[in-house]
Every structure is written in C-alpha cells, then in structure tokens.
User: Fold this.
Amino acid sequence: MNSESAIGVFDSGVGGVSVLRNMARLLPRERFIYYGDNLNAPYGTKSEEEIRTLAMHVADVLLASDIKALVVACNTATSAAIVQLREKLTIPVVGMEPALKPASQMRRNGKVIVLATPATLRQKKFLRLYELYGQNAVIRPCAGLMEFAEREELEGPGIEGYLRGCFEPYRNEQIDAVVLGCTHYVFMKKALSSVLPGVPLVDGNDGTARRLEFLLRERSLLREAGEGGITFMTSGNSEECIPLMERLFQLEI
Ligand code: DGL
Assistant:
C-alpha cells in the first residue's frame, strides 16, 4: 500500500455515492473503489450486530484491493462498526455522523429536525452527539426512506408524501434546519425542498471529504500526479446497481 493505492468507500447501497461526489471533487487525482452492499440493504433496520458483521465483511473485500484508506460513507455502519474497523485496520478509517453540530448553529427560535435510520438514532454514538448539540432538536427515524433512492424515485408524489408524513407533527412550528443523517437522503434535496421550501438542509459530506484529505496528507498518502478514477462494485445486481451509481454520481442535486 502506498500513495498510488486506491481509497475504498462503502455504504449499504447507493447513498455513499453522494459522499463520493464530494471526495472526487476535492481530490481529483485519487482513485476510488466504491462498494455498495445492495444485496444486504437496508442496514438501518438491522441489529447492531448484523450491521457490524456486514461492515467488517465489506471492509475485507475492499482491503483485498490494497486500499490506502477506508471511508465508511454510511452513518448507520459508522455508528455500529467504526470502533471495530479502527481496531482491526492499520490504514486511516473515516466515518460519518449526522451533521447536528453545524445544524445547531443555525437554530433560531425553531426546531432542528434530524432525519436518519432507526439504527443510527438509537446508538450510543448519536446519543452522545445529541447530548452535546441536540437542544431543541427532534429526531425522526426514517425506516423505508432510503429505498426511494435505491429505486431512483427522487421526486414526485410518492417520496413527497412520505416526507410530508414525516414532518406532519411540526406543521405549525418553525423549522430552522433539517439534518440529512443518512447519505441516501442527500439525493432527496429537491423533494425535501418542495415539502419544506426555504429550510436549510445540512449534511456531513463535505466535512468527510476534508477529513479524508487531512488524514491522507498527514501520512503523505495523497496522490500527487496522474488522473483519478472511480470503480463501482456491488454485492447486488451489477447490471442494475452500477448504472444507477453512475447516474447518481452525475446527478444535479
Ligand atoms: N446510507 C446509510 C446511512 O448513511 C443507511 C441506509 C440504510 O442502509 O438503511 O445511514
């Protein structure tokens, strides 16, 4: 493994492609291998133990390509498995967490709403974050929402109906910001903005890309020359999943 090696990135499915976009933009010389565990998606309604086992397996698949860093482009897998991944791997491991800290700075007199998977929201990692930055924040576990991105239903009555139901309890309240605490939800910004016009939508993708850059620079692992590139892999049906990942990579959000 050296600076020429690729960076491994994974998610339960296509959601981590939203993080990959930020990383590829910031680090255009890098080669990325993106792995979507589509066969086992969703992670967010599974137990911690199941998620951890799946994440460790995906890490092994990526390590076989001699990667120089691993990005867990999934809030759910980060909260269930980041400690074990860091214990096991000797390369830098970058994780994600719902961007509640920056969103808490946008709070005025209203609420901050955190959307994430049930598994992310019930784990200790998130509860600690909530204790620090959760004043006036409410959580909405969104089982079933990531599936809209997996089937490329990013706009229209189906997804908007789901989102309307999700925000219904706050219909008469001021909403200062919405945290997109699952990487799939970043692809749903248009639908979110049509349901909540003008409300800031906050995600952690940029921070993750900058963290990756910092760790690679610190270890002299940044690739200095040559063209970057992306290889997509999936545990699911590659004829369907890989073209979808490619389309999402190009999508205007
Ligand atoms: N994209 C994942 C996340 O950031 C979760 C989706 C799922 O598998 O439930 O949490």
The chain has a mean pLDDT of 97. The pocket of D-glutamic acid is lined by residues 11-12, 15, 41-44, 74-76, 117, 120, 146, 182-184 (CB under 6 Å).
